[in-house]
Design a protein that fits this description.
- By secondary structure, the chain is α+β, with helices and mostly antiparallel strands.
- Helix content is about 30%, strand content about 10%.
- It has a single domain, classed as Nucleotidyltransferase, domain 5 (2-Layer Sandwich).
- The strands form 4 sheets. A two-stranded antiparallel ribbon has the order 1-2. It has a two-stranded antiparallel sheet with strand order 3-6.
- Strand 4 and strand 5 form a beta hairpin.
- The model has no long low-confidence stretch (mean pLDDT about 80).
């Protein structure tokens, strides 16, 4: 959301004497500063104390690059989890900062020595012929059970479950509709200063 966002058109009052219009919106040129807004909602509305609003460093580009795993995980653990009911189902999309793994899983490009170390650390017997192809064949049989995500484990520890939306189906995410209403509200409550816009969004 940008601080200069405002509705493009509005009704205005016409002065019967002078013929001039009154009450039109005065909006500075340009988009203004970009604000990054994070929040979580449920069927009962926004989750209390779970909002994060801050000014973007970059004015262009993908806004997802303005968030990192550490900040999101901190918000998830300290703001979301304490404020949702027991046994909640948490629905999220698959952006990178939602999906940090506890550990990297081996791929076929790993060095032979690293594959051996990974298998040994997991207590998985090594093949008789320790060529790279055989090592990776064994890894493929076992590695999925070690595919764990930090957010999933945080939720599980607190008695909740995380479900991720399928890729490229943003229309299944109700937060999209919620954000459209937030943006519309921001435009109708236009304020020039970023601080006031931030307060309105909160």
């Amino acid at each position: 959301m940008h601080t200069h966002d405002a509705i493009a058109r509005s009704w205005v009052e016409k002065d019967e004497v002078t013929g001039e219009t009154l009450g039109s919106i005065s909006c500075p040129s340009g988009k203004g500063k970009r604000l990054i807004i994070l929040h979580a909602g449920s069927e009962d509305g926004w989750i209390p104390n779970c909002d994060l609003v801050y000014q973007s460093i970059e004015e262009e580009g993908d806004y997802h690059e303005e968030m990192n795993c550490q900040s999101f995980e901190n918000l998830f653990e300290n703001n979301l989890i304490p404020n949702i009911p027991p046994n909640s189902l948490i629905v999220m999309d698959n952006v990178s900062y939602h999906s940090r793994r506890f550990e990297p899983l081996p791929t076929s490009n790993w060095r032979k020595g690293d594959m051996i170390t990974w298998l040994t650390n997991k207590g998985i017997p090594l093949p008789t012929k320790g060529i790279k192809q055989n090592l990776y064949a064994i890894i493929k049989k076992h590695k999925e059970k070690y595919r764990k995500y930090v957010i999933d484990e945080m939720a599980k520890t607190a008695g909740h479950e995380v479900v991720c939306l399928p890729l490229y189906y943003c229309e299944l995410n109700p937060i999209e509709m919620a954000w459209s209403q937030v943006k519309h509200y921001g435009k109708t409550q236009f304020r020039i200063h970023a601080r006031r816009i931030t307060s309105s969004c909160e």
